[in-house]
Amino acid sequence: MATLQTAAAIAERYAAPWLIVPNVGDRIDCAAIVTEDGYTVCNPSPMGDDKARLIANAPALLAELSGLVGILLLGSTPTPAELAAALAILDQANPKE
Length: 97
Fold this sequence. Notes:
alpha+beta; three-stranded antiparallel sheet; 47% helix
C-alpha cells in the first residue's frame, strides 16, 4: 500500500525538478529527462513533446496528488488555492492545444 509523503519528501526522493533535454544525439525527435544535476531519469528516446512533458512533471504531479489525498483522508476539503495549484501542475504536464 502506498504511503503519503510531503511534497518536500517527494521532491527530495525524486530529485525534482526533472528537465527535458530535446534533440539528444543526432536525432531531432529524441528527448531525455534529467535532474538539475544531470542525472538521467529517462534515456533518450523518440517520445515526443507531450510524453516528455508528462514524464518531466511526474514528481510535481505525485506531490500534488499526495497532498490532495492527504487532505481528503483528514476529512477536509481542498482550498481553492490548493486546487488551483494542482490544476496548474496538470496544465504543465498536459497543456491545451
